[in-house]
Specification:
Blueprint: H1 4-25, H2 31-36, H3 73-76, E1 136-137, E2 140-141, H4 194-221, E3 227-229, E4 234-236, H5 244-248, H6 250-255, H7 259-269, E5 281-283, H8 284-301, H9 307-321, E6 334-336, H10 339-342, E7 352-353, H11 354-358, H12 361-371, H13 375-390, E8 403-405, H14 414-417, E9 426-430, E10 440-442, E11 453-459, E12 466-470, E13 483-489, H15 519-522, E14 524-525, E15 528-529, H16 533-536, E16 557-559, E17 567-568, E18 580-581, E19 588-591, H17 597-609, H18 616-631, E20 633-634, E21 646-647, E22 649-652, E23 663-665, E24 667-669, H19 675-685, H20 690-707, E25 717-720, H21 733-740, H22 744-775, H23 800-805, H24 864-875, E26 881-886, H25 894-906, H26 910-926, H27 952-965, E27 976-978, E28 984-986
Antiparallel strand pairs: 1-2, 3-4, 5-6, 7-8, 8-18, 9-10, 9-17, 11-12, 11-13, 12-16, 14-15, 19-22, 20-21, 22-23, 24-25, 25-26, 27-28
Helix pairs in contact: 4-27, 8-9, 8-12, 9-12, 12-13, 12-17, 17-18, 19-20, 19-25, 20-25, 25-26, 25-27
Length: 989
């Protein structure tokens, strides 16, 4: 039966659809074309008249009339890739097309692009640099600096007059005489069998192919840049944009026999300009070990044939040695090289990373030996003297903390030097005419500025030009309209304080500052010197007793034409001191790992490089290693009872604890894995045979750390469970689980307390509910006197009530009375209860039950077993490991470094076996089209590539793999000393 009411909607929809098809289907242009033509006809043609459909555009939205323009330098700058020259005779993989033969000469090194500091040249470089806040990991001075447009004129470093020079006769000379007899380091290897030789050479070929792939990737995609991004084929410049990978890999090229690539690289190095860089600072440590070490080692390993390498090394060293121009000759580990800043006097930092100041000796010593210029050795010998003097004054005598104060200036008690109210006048002292002229007073001079500002205001009067100096903390508000103000950075050895009180004698001459030093000697602009104070303040002083307050312009005015006089700030007394702690009240970390490592490594290596003629290096090494063995080395608790050792971290508080020396962290870090090789070499040259066993166990500890993961690669750092003794240690699963779940008891106790609270809340809520329920009255019962039950609907007809419910257009059924009316909802009819019209229903509202208060029940905690098993599974913890602090691997070399040392020193083939397993794992999970990449998580079965290939992959890691399988006479330990970047320096004979 047709249900007219239900299908009306469908009929209407059909009519609309037909109309729409007619309108849109007959259009001569498509809907998309109509939209595209909204802004006007194409090609200047008008829309056809009489078109079946005319598109009516939406109303125009109000548009922004001002252009939205955001300056994003990185978005506007394109990385200019410098292509390397082609080598026609170099064999290349068949799947790699050769470089363009049209390029026959190396493209010049691209002009460095200055960073935001000093853009446009020295004359505009008035911004005082801030400390390096870039990437800093384990003492590495990495800082990504976005390139700027090449149209910006680069600033170049210029040699400055030293503020704290050392007389030639006071320079510490290189030791003279024949080297002392030092025990042999390498094992006396025997001839190998033909089968062993074939196997070894096959492995060498494989290692060389991996190196060649990475080198080709760098050469094709990142030539003359710092690092290759091996996944994307792009590059990065985290150092100084001086081609870090190029310089770092020079000696590796030679060692592996890639002599043509070596010659090409040497020519490219000659084009590097070390006098300019986009970075505002030069990281002294990284630049020394990678660049300076790479250049000197390449000169040594290639038979000293390429003098240009030493020339470039000296060019760089002259810049680096300028960082040592401080009162105590301790270097600025982040050297701000731009002339406007470097021309001023500076001090070393009061918070320096130990490795960054203690790991410069090998490179500077070898440069001094090659060039004969002893100033390079003098620079690092003074650091060694300071380390030696400080070694037994630390909180852990024999070792040094990871941070130290190298400023050489004892802290000043400001409350004793100055009026705390800052209301007392501050005096400028006339050092030449102390009795002449009134004193000048200043007020409200801020004392917490790291670099006060000197304003020089010049009167425009032509009759008597005068100069006024305002020392108001950098504020020159309300200057007289007749004065022009010049901003000159003032960064003398901070802090500069003016002692209150009139006619008070001068105090606190800083070491190596003489009375002849003038402001004009210190504040130079590019291409000219400012006039010295003596020439600027000739004649008698004509000073006003005007007070300066809150940056007001009143100050002392001096007649330039008056007799000679010198106006010198009175500095506070600065007591000389050596190295001290940089954390007077906080804890200090002592470790062989990051931020300390190479300082200890260089003690024995410097001893070798100096031919054993400086005994202090042996003494310092032995003292530190004894402390390490007593306080840092531990045996981890492992299921199989492996007899291995790790070296952890000891945090020592400022106040000695009642028990022990401090808080020990049972860490094993990849950066610490060099320790096995260091102990092994020290055992040989210093006759400490007991240390050779420690060396083997430390190296085995790092091999175990590789084997414990699914990838076969060691993570950056993890925490183990230490045994109480290194001699005997049995596996205790209960103890291990307690370490994994130290809060098991607390978790249960917390749950019990929550349940008690929950029970109390439930009791209170129940009582409240019963109260509310009892307060309710029974609902009234409605009464209706005339109520009656309606009769059933007759089946022979239709009632009047049902008739009223029918639609006005719907026909009543006719014919037989048994026909039923079909309802729209298809439900059976219901009985209708009819009330007596004379009876009104009760108006009393119906009652509802009260709401029960919402109370949350505590969730039962995991059991101790459930918690431990879940944590092991979720964190992918190998048995015996408590925490993995850092899961990534960035192609680090320290583990294979110790494996190589152990093989060369002991001759045990076991080390070649474990080394090969390490190589296969590393190459399997880090290999890319363009090279090898760091990975994110060594505990994954499929780690992600991070698109980073640090320069030490080619300089160290792959080199150590190669040397492990090369003939033992290649880079023999009895002939060479390797720096911390694996650059070999020739030992004196």
């Amino acid at each position: 039966m047709l249900r007219y009411r239900r299908y009306r909607v469908f009929v209407i929809f059909a009519v609309i659809a037909v109309f729409a098809l007619y309108k849109f289907g007959s259009s001569s242009t498509s809907w998309r074309e109509q939209v595209e033509d909204n802004d006007g006809p194409k090609g200047g043609k008008e829309e056809p008249v009489g078109s079946p459909m005319t598109w009516i555009p939406r109303p125009q939205v109000a548009q922004e009339t001002k252009k939205f323009d955001v300056e994003i330098p990185a978005a506007k700058t394109s990385h200019v890739l410098v292509s390397p020259p082609a080598i026609s005779s170099v064999s290349r993989p068949v799947d790699r097309p050769p470089l363009s033969p049209a390029i026959t000469q190396p493209t010049p090194f691209p002009a460095a692009k200055p960073s935001a500091i000093g853009i446009g040249g020295p004359e505009n470089d008035h911004t005082i640099p801030k400390p390096n806040e870039g990437f800093f990991e384990h003492g590495e001075g990495r800082l990504e600096v976005p390139p700027l447009p090449s149209s910006v004129e680069p600033i170049h470093w210029k040699k400055q007059s030293e503020h704290f020079p050392i007389a030639s006769k006071s320079l510490i000379p290189l030791p003279s005489g024949a080297p002392k007899a030092i025990p042999k380091i390498q094992f006396a290897f025997k001839d190998e069998s033909p089968a062993a030789r074939a196997d070894r050479e096959a492995k060498l070929t494989r290692i060389k192919s991996v190196f060649k792939r990475s080198w080709d990737g760098y050469r094709e995609n990142a030539w003359l840049q710092d690092e290759l991004s091996p996944v994307s084929g792009k590059f990065r410049n985290p150092f100084a944009s001086w081609g870090a990978t190029l310089v770092d890999a020079l000696d590796t090229l030679w060692i592996m026999g890639f002599e043509k690539e070596f010659e090409e690289a040497v020519k490219a190095v000659n084009g590097i300009d070390f006098t300019t860089t986009p970075r505002g600072d030069i990281p002294l440590f990284e630049t020394t070990i990678r660049y300076l070490g790479g250049l000197v080692a390449a000169y040594d390993i290639s038979g000293m044939k390429h003098k240009s390498l030493i020339d470039k090394a000296v060019e760089l060293a002259e810049i680096l040695i300028s960082a040592f121009d401080t009162p105590n000759r301790m270097p600025q580990t982040y050297y701000y090289w731009r002339p406007t800043f470097s021309s001023q006097a500076h001090r070393a930092s009061n918070r320096i990373v130990l490795a960054e100041i203690g790991s410069l000796s090998v490179e500077f010593t070898r440069l001094a030996q090659v060039t004969g210029d002893i100033k390079y050795y003098d620079a690092i010998a003074r650091i060694t003297d300071q380390l030696e003097e400080f070694q037994n004054r630390t909180r852990l005598p024999g070792m040094w903390p990871t941070y130290l104060d190298a400023s050489g200036c004892k802290s000043i008690d400001w409350t004793k030097q100055l009026d705390t109210s800052l209301q007392s006048p501050l005096e400028l002292k006339d050092t030449e005419n102390e009795t002449e002229g009134p004193s000048t007073t200043l007020k409200h001079l801020p004392l917490d500025l790291p670099s006060p500002i000197m304003f020089v205001a010049e009167e425009k009067s032509t009759e008597q030009p005068r100069t006024a100096i305002f020392l108001d903390g950098g504020k020159a508000a309300e200057q007289p309209s007749t004065a022009t103000v010049k901003l000159i950075p003032l960064d003398l050895p901070s802090p500069i304080v003016f002692v209150p009180g009139k006619n008070e004698p001068g105090k606190g001459k800083i070491k190596n500052w003489d009375d002849e030093t003038t402001v004009g000697d210190l504040y130079k602009k590019e291409g000219e010197k400012a006039a010295s104070v003596k020439s600027a303040f000739k004649a008698r002083r004509q000073l006003d007793d005007t007070e300066v307050s809150n940056g007001e312009a009143a100050a002392s005015v001096v007649d330039k034409s008056a007799p000679s006089a010198s106006l010198t700030p009175v500095r506070p007394e600065c007591e000389d001191q050596g190295f001290v702690s940089s954390s007077e009240f906080g804890s200090e970390d002592y470790t062989l790992g990051g931020m300390s490592d190479s300082t200890y490594e260089y003690l024995s290596k410097e001893y070798l490089l100096l031919g054993g003629q400086v005994e202090k290096y042996r003494t310092m090494f032995e003292q530190s290693m004894d402390v390490v063995k007593e306080n840092l080395i531990f045996r981890p608790m492992l299921p199989n009872g492996d007899d291995i050792l790790f070296s952890g971290v000891l945090s020592v508080p400022s106040i000695p604890p009642k028990v022990g020396k401090g808080e020990f962290q049972a860490e094993n870090a990849h950066l610490t894995c060099f320790a096995g090789g260091m102990f092994a070499m020290g055992a040989r040259i210093f006759n400490r045979e007991e240390d050779l066993k420690i060396a083997a166990k430390l190296t085995e500890g790092c091999v175990w750390s590789y084997n414990m993961t699914s990838t076969g690669i060691m993570p950056e750092a993890f925490i183990a469970v230490p045994c109480e003794s290194t001699k005997q240690c049995e596996w205790n699963e209960t103890k291990y689980w307690e370490v994994l779940d130290p809060g098991a008891d607390a978790r249960v106790t917390s749950y019990e307390q929550q349940m008690e609270t929950y029970s109390a809340q439930m009791a209170s809520a129940s009582a409240f509910y019963e109260e509310q329920l009892a307060a309710m009255t029974a609902p009234p019962v409605p009464t209706a006197s005339g109520a009656f039950e309606a009769a059933a609907t007759p089946t022979t007809g239709v009632s009047d009530l049902l008739k009223r419910q029918l639609d006005d257009h719907r026909e009543l059924p006719t014919g037989n009375s048994t026909h039923e009316i079909e309802r729209e909802d298809d439900e059976p009819p219901t009985k209708v209860r009819v009330e007596d019209p004379s009876t009104e229903p009760s108006t009393e509202p119906s009652s509802t039950l009260p709401a029960f208060p919402v109370i949350y029940s505590p969730k039962p905690p995991l059991t101790h077993e459930e918690y431990v098993k879940n944590r092991i599974q979720e964190e992918r913890l190998p048995p015996g490991v408590a925490v993995i602090k850092a899961r990534n691997y960035i192609l680090r070399p320290e583990a294979i470094e110790s494996v190589w040392y152990m093989y060369r020193i002991t001759g045990d083939p076991h080390w070649r076996e474990v080394g090969w397993r390490m190589f296969e794992a590393v190459d399997q999970y880090t290999s890319t089209v363009h090279g090898n990449s760091a990975i994110d998580d060594v505990t994954k079965t499929s780690p992600e590539l991070l698109d980073e290939m640090e320069s030490f992959w080619l300089a160290e890691t792959i080199k150590y793999f190669y040397l492990l399988f090369a003939e033992e006479k290649v880079v023999s330990l009895d002939d060479w000393v390797l720096n911390t970047e694996a650059h070999p320096f020739r030992r004196p004979k």
